[in-house]
Every structure is written in structure tokens, then in C-alpha cells.
Amino acid sequence: MRVTFLGTGSTRDPRRRCAATLVTLPDGTHVLIDTGGGNEVLLSLEAAGADVTRIRAIILTHQHLDHAAGLPFVLFQLAMATVRGQVVGQVDVCAPAPAVAGLRAACETFFPGLQNPWWLADRVRWHGCDPGDYLWRLEARDDGTNVVIPDPAVRAGQEIPDGVVAVIETMAVSHGAPPVPAQSVRIDARHADGPTRRLVVSGDTGPNLNMSRFAAGADLLVHEAVEADALGANPLLVLGSGHATAAIAGMVATVARARRLALHHLNARTGEHPEIVRAEASAHFAGEVLVPNDLDVIDV
Length: 300
What we know:
Metallo-beta-lactamase, Chain A, alpha/beta, 300 residues, 15 strands, seven-stranded mixed β-sheet
């Protein structure tokens, strides 16, 4: 897998693009995790050399502006690709269940007719991860199709089935003040040389007892670090807003026994001091700690 950080900042740092991560699977197709705050996600995708028609799944960690407002622009770009005669396959969009209706309405409001038969039609399938459920699971097959597994617990602990390139799973987490439904993302991908690699992206989340279990054995854990204790963050305010510090990210990575940790969703202060953020996480995690910039690429 290849991870391209389309955006690493947060709403409190207008100089940096907001949250969006592109994951390229071993077969060359893409999973887009979050869509940033607007049409800048299209500029980032273009700068990264990514073909939007190769996106097979879009996973939104939650409905906040900086994570979801770019969705209508991405879907519109896909619709225009069909108008130009390009081949656009099935695209599965997954968000926390309570957010799906509003997100669909926003897409239709900004681009009326977006899902008409002569545009996207039934190429886009919408899915909601119920906050009461532990997991939602999508299997990306090597024939280009995606299959949603109704009962993910049935496949728990199993090897990736034959004919499947990657397994995409989400887990409900806590975020926000006031709280909003949110989810983290895990992708297990089968590589050509045999081994399976695991990527976990936290999204925005406060302390969550299940997060380390969800991220167990991750080859790369991408975790938010909006604030840093070493830069004077007020722990009560950070946790009360449903976020995490670099120290918390380091602790999660240690308990999960992750191989590498990448910190993103930094605010203006943390973004200006990557060495301090890295050191704070490293005080709690013995593995490699990365603080990517926008458009940096990490192979998993």
C-alpha cells in the first residue's frame, strides 16, 4: 500500500490543507479517507498524480467541515469523468450512519442532479456505520468489485480471502464537543509477494479503549495529534473536544504494537514544531515516529 497525505492540518491552521488521505492499494486502485474542506482536495489529488476514476471507496471519518466538505467536489469530478466518456466503476461511500442523509443532501444541493442516470446514477453506493456496531467491513476484490460483509464478526481473525485485494473496516469512536458520530479506518492489503500489510487511520478521536485493539499489529498507524503537552496544551480541553495529543498517539501506538506512527491533523502550533511533536510521541512509543507534510508519501 502507498499512503499519500493530501492534507495534514486542521481547521485551526488555515495555511495547511485539511484532513484527507489517499491510500493506493496493491492493484493501483484508491481508497480516499476524508475529503478535506472543499475543492482543494481536487488540487491535492492532481498534485499527487492520482486518477480520480481509480477511486473505489471513499471513507469519511465524520461529518465535520474539514473532513467532509470536499465530498461533493470529488463526486462531481467523477460525474464529469462519465460525461467525458471515461470509465468510472463502482464507488462505495461510507460514513457514520447518522451523517449519511445529510451528506447525500449536501451533495445534491451543491450539484443538483449529481446522481441522475446520465451522471453517476447507481455507480455510487452509500453505507452507514452504525455507532452501536463494532465494525463495518468492505472487501475490495481483484475483479474491481466491492463486497460489503453484513456481519464482520464472521470474518474476524481470518486471512484475507482469495480474490480479495484489501479489506476495509471501520470502527465507531468518540469525537467532538458536542459529540458527533465518528469512525476510524483499518485497511489490510494483500501484497504480490505474499505478506499482508495493515494501515490504520484514527480520524478525529478522543481516548478510546478499543482504538489500540483496532490498530493492533499495524504496520503504519496514522493518528491525529492536534495538540502537544510539550507545547502547553490543556489536557482537559483537548480531551473534552474529542481530540488527542502527540503523547496519547504514542501511547496508543505502543499498546497496539504498531511498527510505525505518523502524526497528522496538526494545528498551527504543532505544525510549526514537528520536532517537538515527534519527541513527545517518541517518549511513549519506541518505534519510528513520522510527522508528514502535505503530499508526503509513505509505503506500507
